[in-house]
Amino acid sequence: MTTQKAIESIEKVKSGDLSPLKIHKWLMLLWTKEEKDNVNIENFKRLEDVTRHSVLEYVYRTLMILEEEKEYINSLEYSIIEEVLCWSEVAKCGCRAMRKKFENKGYILSIHNIGSAQIYREYNKDVVPADRLELVYTLIETHGLIGQYLRGETSITRSLELVKLSYPDVNMKRLLCILNKCIIKAVFTELYDEIKNDVDEVIDNLISLNFHQYLDDSTVTRFKKFRKKAIQNGENFEEAMQNIYMDNPQYAVSFRHFLSNYDFWYVEGSTANLKALEIGKLFVYVDKVVRTHDKITDISFENLQSLYTDYKGKKTVNIFKERFLEAFLKDFDPFSDTPFKNEHLEIKVIIQPPLAKVELRFSEIAEKFLDFCMAGFGQGAIYDQIISEGCRILQISRDTFDRLYNEDDYLNTMNASTDDKQRLVEYLLEETTSEGKTIVDIGPGGGELMNRIVEEYPDSNVIGLDFSKSVIEYLENERNKNKRRWNVQQGDALKIDEIFKPGEVHSFSCCSINHEIFSFNGFSYEALKKMFRGMFTVLPQGGRLAIRDGVMTEGDSKGIIGFLNPNGLEKLERYARDFKGRDIQYEILDPESVNLPANEKADIYSFAKLPINDSMEFNFTYTWGEDSYFKEVKEQFGYFTPKEYIKCLHECAKDVGCDIRVIGMQHYLLPGYTENLSKLIKFYDEEFNETSLPDSTIFLIVEKI
To answer: How far is it, in rounded angstroms, from Cα 298 to Cα 352?
Structure first.
């Protein structure tokens, strides 16, 4: 049977012609898979793309790649590779009765390359010559293991059977290179392109009996292989390993034992989003359990793929499950006699020699809560509020600023909106030299402002201070990944004078953070004053505070919003109910009483009159969209007028025995708001003259004197 016929057989079955199933046992097994398990979801961009025929689709892709490579191999090599590809995944498939039959015969279906080889032998022992049968059996049994070795999931010893392979008229190196190309490229073309040279080198060394170098791989080297994605995303691997080895001498011994004695399945994809220290603790616990079973050789982390879900059309980690696991691993000591479980989560190790399966088992309450979180997240402020409060009660929320799924989007948005912030950077230091100067960025967001500070003052010491654990982790990864020349530390901005000594910091920048400090401390002016007093205590004479944040308009004028969408007024009414900062006052206007030309009025669904500062708060939340709504209604963007801001800073400086002078001040409307709101509203003064939106932002630089 040629590969083209194998491809044609699959295509016939997919089109509804099941006659090839009577001819090809491998195809019958692949087609009759009943469940969607035993599939590596790492290979899918969306979980909804996983079907019960995903394994068959993968085999089809391997055969198509082989068809492209046929000119580079002879017909015998071609047919051997085809046979291997057709049978290599069958242990993942088959109906329930057939799988039970195989299990009763002792076939190891849970380690699919071994199980597939055993099934191949049973179906072909009477029809394939003995030498070819053993060759194909070995190639199936070892298929994919070179790639898994390069990922750190298996040791090279699992591939040593390839060393002794030989077959008349077959170039074994060429055959193995093409076979591995089919296996790996069918997962991702980019993956094969990335590791092609490494794959070919390992094969060459195996065939040349030059494999002993691979036997000396240390446990650290192996662990680093399957932390590759995490390291690419900024994980400080050396620091992580130091923490694992220094945390507890027992950890180091058990960690080494685990990595030295077992092969892993699904480990890289399942644990990529966990921290190295958390994985180390998990490994130590699993090692503690499986050591008592001398027949265990393999550990499967397949169940940990349940940490993933689809969100906004793509596969992502289920942040709520991740928080449960993170809190769990933080609290438990794997060496204690306490069971590795709490009321919400249990980490269970299922022993099925030669395999041990690691499973996460959530309580019924936790499962229901997780279902609610996934169904309700982003569906409205009330749902998000319940979810946030539930996470807090269950102690799986990191802190007040935990934005869950919106964290990366929020930080990326902060990075993208820096054009008008450059002027703030230029005012941070008076002197032309920055050598020896320390600049602290309060609430550094995605880190882009710190990047600009370092560019402007290359000899300065730049520190980002943030209360949020999630932000600190993001920034540490960003620093490591892109070799940034700044540092970050977690800390409370209300305790500036406890974190830094007087004279230690020469400038503070507060960019779009003061309104959060005001809002998340109960809309407290005293909280802002406490932070300002701390800054003026720490700053030396001539030290500067640079502020860019929301602003209120002087006076008590009103504005009129004309909604261009039918649900605009409904959103204002909802916002007035949900906003936590103050009572939003508004008056719904009768369209008949509105003095506007008929053609202009025809485009507007409803009108509302409200104080100018209330209109600012609503309009600028309106631009953020539904995903951020529940966070935005908890924040008051404007809290001082320009005059009130300057007065407050003077008072805070005098409270600590100094004073300030204003170096620069401007209040303005960010251009993006006008553009975004132009599709949603028209804005008028009280005489129905279309007018500009109220100022959104203040730029304020003061110097300690």
So the answer is: 10
Helix, strand, coil percentages (3-state) for the chain, rounded to 5, are 55, 15, 30
Name the nearest CA neighbour of 699 among 511, 519, 544.
Answer: 511
Q: What percent of the chain has pLDDT over 70?
A: 95
Residue 331's pLDDT band, with cuts at 50, 70 and 90, is confident
Q: What is the pTM of this model?
A: 0.78
Mean pLDDT of the region 173-191: 95
Cβ neighbors of 689 (< 8 A, separation 6 or more) are none
Q: What is the pLDDT of residue 172?
A: 96
Among candidate residues 515, 481, 551, 529, the one with its CA nearest the CA of residue 401: 515
**Domain boundaries, given as residue ranges, for the chain:** 3-217, 222-364, 413-550
Q: Are 51 and 36 in contact (CB under 8 A)?
A: yes
- What is the CATH superfamily name and number for domain 413-550? Vaccinia Virus protein VP39 (3.40.50.150)
C-alpha to C-alpha distance for 116 and 91, rounded to whole angstroms: 5
3-state secondary structure 138-168: HHHHCCCHHHHHHCCCCCHHHHHHHHHCCCC
Neighbours of 360 (CB within 10 A): 17
Ranking 99-113, 151-165, 407-421, 626-640 by mean pLDDT, the lowest is 407-421
Tokens for 39, please give them.
């599939």
